[in-house]
Write a structure and sequence with these properties.
It is built from three helices and no strands. By secondary structure, it is mainly α. The protein has one domain. Helix 2 packs across helix 3. The longest helix has 27 residues. The chain is globular and about 45 Å long. The N and C termini lie far apart (about 45 Å). About 15% of the residues are buried.
């Protein structure tokens, strides 16, 4: 991959909720972009333990894992808000 947009296009071709090979329900390009930025931040802080693979399938799968984990944390937080009666 040569740029951010190209990597997002590549990931969307796999995870697009409408016609992706492995669709992720409700996925937006913005959500995927944020997961990608989080992955790049993680790589930058890993002191070489994790490296950018030039946008290969491992990079794509790691971004997917971050996306799924983020959604899980967000859902848990929303559930807590509702359970505690903190909604308006």
């Amino acid at each position: 991959m040569t740029n951010f947009r190209e990597f997002l296009d590549y990931c969307m071709s796999f995870y697009n909720p409408y016609n992706g090979l492995y669709p992720i329900d409700g996925l937006t390009r913005e959500e995927l972009a944020l997961a990608t930025l989080n992955y790049l931040d993680l790589i930058a802080s890993c002191d070489g333990d994790m490296t950018w693979g030039e946008g290969d399938s491992l990079d794509r799968e790691r971004v997917r894992d971050i996306l799924i984990e983020t959604r899980s944390h967000n859902q848990a937080f929303e559930d807590l808000i509702i359970r505690e009666g903190l909604t308006a």
